[in-house]
What does this fold into?
Amino acid sequence: MLTLHTPGAEATMSSREIAEICEARHNDVIATIERLINEGVLRLGRNTARLQAPGVAGGRPTMVYDLAKRDCLIVISGYSAALRAKIIDRWMELEAAAPAPALPQSFAEALRLAADQQDVIAAQAEQLAAAAPAVEFVERYADSTGTKGFRQVAKLLNAKENEFREFLLDSKILYRLSGELTPHAQHIDAGRFCVKAGTAQVSGHAYNAARFTPKGVTWIAGEWAKHQVALRQRAGAEVAA
It folds into this structure.
């Protein structure tokens, strides 16, 4: 069974309407749409797909796609100029007929709308404030050519070592291997970490130390900032509750 995408407020044009306007076979339009989907050209998440009710097309259920404007224009890009003009004219009609955003109908609704907008503004300001240290950190250290250890990075981020360690473990960035913090393979492959082998001078014990590369330092600064924002928002929600 096909997973249906719920249409939003955005205007759409169905594959059947495209076929009717362009005097084309609906099956040919569907074939073009599905080829472009398979090629990754169409943004399927912004479209919907549905089965047309039986009885409309010779008694058989027929697939119909509802396309957002961008994808619709891509589908007809190979059509003649005259047919493309018809589709564009139809889009202009759809957009002209689109309802304007609903205005508050009462003083209470206006207050609620203003409060919602203020919440969004406050959340955005909080994210910017939380990200500011990380941005400064990236600007200072992104050009570094050397690797850095766990404690160095925690200090640069002004993070408590135990909290930073738990964050790295919980986020599946590092894991413990024989008591040592070790990067997961995908992060090594991404160039965020390297593992340096060494021997303790006193005990002679061999060890492997995870080191943040300059790329990893930049990346973890952003991840830590997002983590801090999430913690603040969670704390705010708990207080409000």
Remarks:
- The longest helix spans residues 107-141.
- The chain has nine helices and seven strands.
- The chain has two domains: 13-97, 107-240.
- Residues 152 and 237 are 33 Å apart (CA to CA).
